[in-house]
Design goal:
This protein is of the alpha/beta class. It has a single domain (13-375), classed as Aldolase class I (TIM Barrel). 38% of the residues lie in helices and 14% in strands. The protein has helices at 31-34, 52-65, 87-96, 113-119, 133-139, 145-161, 181-193, 207-214, 220-226, 233-240, 249-252, 285-293, 298-303, 306-310, 316-328, 366-375; strands spanning 13-17, 71-74, 100-105, 123-128, 167-174, 196-201, 254-257, 263-264, 275-277, 333-335, 343-345, 352-353. A nine-stranded mixed beta sheet has the order 6-5-4-3-2-1-7-8-9. It is globular, with a radius of gyration of 21 Å. It starts with 12 loop residues before the first strand and ends with a helix.
């Protein structure tokens, strides 16, 4: 039983804060796209925009809680942050208080992009799953990859105009069908734009639906998308069982907030049933953690190794599971998310390691930054 009198100080603590409660896409592996109204046990969390004043109070509370010397704040969980008309102000507020600021977008819209780049987030993730529309539309439903690519070029221009240090990561979701020409072309595009490219195994989310699937409850529509995954969640669950006693980093070193400032059990859950505290601002950190560790969902989740699945603890075992399906489908590449080389051209006679695009990191004047933070009282 989790009964601390004070919180331990973590090396890094991450806050996932949805500032928008909806998305312009309906991706089938994401609950915004796959969760039906009939599947909620309590109901849907609010779907509007977070109030900026509430967000500033949240930031002040995070600062008072002082759970880590390195706080990371990411302005998304299941929502599309670029939909928020004041998203740039959220970035500015986060940077002003001295926290690392991350943002993620499907980049199917350029709304507010100019102001966001000006605000200078530390990290900007572009989430996609193909280079050509035929593949992309299967797993980023309602999306148009041509629009995404156009906005990637626009982002490069904005970064250059603003002499920005923002690290841009293209997160490429790997399925059975898209580790071929689509990935080849995305490598070339990221090299041209000087964006980092990170392929990752695609997951089936959220936790509620993953647990249902493991219990044999799955709709025909969901089964279709699961069959497209390179890694079956049931196989991952079996592989994770030996590690199920490990604590879950989603609750140990991370907190997730909804647009109304309520605290979600973790970033893997979606149903309002898993709101553990109605107000992050009004609830002490130790009490939030006590409520999370006492939540009934953690039992079945950890019993089936889902906390291991969602936090990538299995590492190379996931790579081995994924490679089995990629090889069956004669994919162009051997992909390894957790070991080097991550990408190898599948050629029995002459296998060739492919270097993933990596932007050149600009040197930062750390002494000047420390002086600036000191003057600002950070």
């Amino acid at each position: 039983m989790y009964e601390p009198t004070e919180h331990p100080k973590n090396k890094v603590f991450t806050y996932w804060i949805d500032i928008v409660g909806t998305c312009n896409l309906r991706c089938p592996t994401c609950p915004t796209g796959n969760f039906l109204d009939s599947e909620f046990s309590v109901g849907r969390n609010p779907t509007g925009f977070m109030d900026l004043d509430l967000y500033k109070r949240i930031l002040e509370k995070i600062k008072r809680d002082n759970v880590s010397d390195r706080i990371e704040v990411h302005l998304y969980t299941w929502g599309e942050p670029l939909l928020h008309p004041k998203v740039a102000e959220f970035v500015t507020a986060t940077k002003r208080i001295g926290f690392f600021c991350g943002i993620s977008s499907n980049l199917n819209l350029d709304k507010n992009l100019k102001n966001v780049i000006k605000a200078g987030p530390d990290f900007f993730r572009i989430s996609l799953s193909g280079y050509y529309q035929d593949n992309y539309k299967l797993t980023h439903k309602r999306g148009d990859i041509r629009t995404v690519k156009s906005n990637m070029y626009r982002m490069r221009k904005l970064l250059d105009l603003n002499k920005s240090n923002t690290n841009v990561q293209v997160l490429y979701h790997v399925y059975q069908h898209n580790a071929g020409d689509d990935l080849t072309m995305m490598i070339k595009l990221c090299e041209e734009l000087e964006f980092d490219l990170d392929p990752v195994w695609a997951y089936y989310m959220p936790l509620e639906k993953s647990l249902d699937y493991l219990d044999g409850k799955v709709s025909a529509e969901d089964e279709k998308i699961i069959n497209m995954l390179a890694i079956d969640p049931a196989d991952v669950s079996k592989a994770a069982i030996p590690y199920k006693e490990q604590d879950c980093n989603l609750r140990k070193t991370q907190i997730t907030l909804n647009i109304d400032g309520s605290v979600q059990l973790c970033c893997a859950t979606f149903d309002q049933a898993y709101v553990v505290a109605p107000s992050f601002v009004d609830t002490p950190h130790v009490e939030i953690q006590r409520l999370r560790y006492a939540n009934d969902m953690c039992g079945p989740c950890m019993e089936k190794g889902q906390h291991i699945y969602f936090t990538y603890v299995l590492g190379t075992k996931l790579d081995n599971l994924g490679e089995k399906n990629l090889s069956k489908n004669n994919s162009k590449f051997i992909f390894k998310q957790f070991s080097e080389p991550q990408l190898i051209l599948r050629d029995e006679q002459n296998p060739e390691a492919i270097a993933l695009p990596r932007a050149q990191k600009k040197k930062k004047n750390r002494g000047l930054r420390r002086l600036k933070n000191k003057l600002l009282g950070r």
